[in-house]
Write a structure and sequence with these properties.
CATH architecture of the largest domain: Roll
Order of helices and strands: EEHHEEEHEHEEH
Largest sheet: 5 strands, mixed
CATH superfamily of the largest domain: Transcription elongation factor, GreA/GreB, C-terminal domain
Number of helices: 5
Number of domains: 2
Number of strands: 8
Shape: elongated
């Protein structure tokens, strides 16, 4: 997610992921509402109904999550996928970087998808063929690595700090097609 004024930039497939999550949360809300009605039953005693309290807490959390996604989608603007010839790290870029431990693959995604498992699932199916690339980091522009890598090109050094520890890596390659090829059709 990149901020430009009051708009949040996200890729089209990220918006689709968020809409899917919103649909799932709405289905969950219906299920929670049914569970609440069952817990209340005919003889509702508000003094001693722990299951109802738990359900109401889940319902409140569900409603907060729905509101957050709806509000985020209202202020979001679709960012175009990077051009394949573009060699600058940006939202939607797949990057291979070299640090003192080896090759580090990462993809730069919008803020609301930082915890999404969809990228890792696709990575397991369609990794770059190299045994050094066991796992894929999913980073956001606001993370220390994401902030350091944005705007860099091949052979540039990214320096960033996490928990008062300094890190450095060199951008080895930038693939603008990997994200688009794996997610644009979703």
């Amino acid at each position: 997610m990149l901020k430009f004024g009051s708009m949040e930039k996200i890729l089209l497939h990220e918006k689709k992921f968020l809409i899917e999550a919103l649909d799932d949360l709405r289905v969950e809300r219906l299920s929670l509402a049914d569970a609440k009605a069952d817990a209340q039953g005919d003889s509702y005693d508000w003094h001693d109904n722990a299951p109802l309290d738990v359900i109401e807490q889940h319902l409140k959390q569900n409603t907060r999550q729905i509101n957050q996604i709806e509000n985020f989608l209202k202020i979001s603007e679709i960012e175009s996928y990077p051009e394949e010839s573009d060699k600058v790290a940006k939202l939607g870029s797949f990057v291979l970087a070299q640090d003192s431990y080896g090759i580090m693959p990462f993809v730069i995604v919008g803020q609301h998808l930082a915890g999404s498992k969809k990228y890792e699932e696709v990575w397991e199916i369609n990794p770059i063929n190299n045994p050094d690339h066991e796992s894929l980091l999913v980073i956001t522009p606001s993370s220390p690595l994401g902030a350091a890598a944005l705007g860099l090109t091949i052979e540039d050094d990214a320096k960033y700090t996490v928990d008062n520890r300094n890190f450095s890596l060199r951008i080895a390659s930038i693939d603008q097609a990997w994200v688009k090829n794996n997610f644009a059709s979703e």
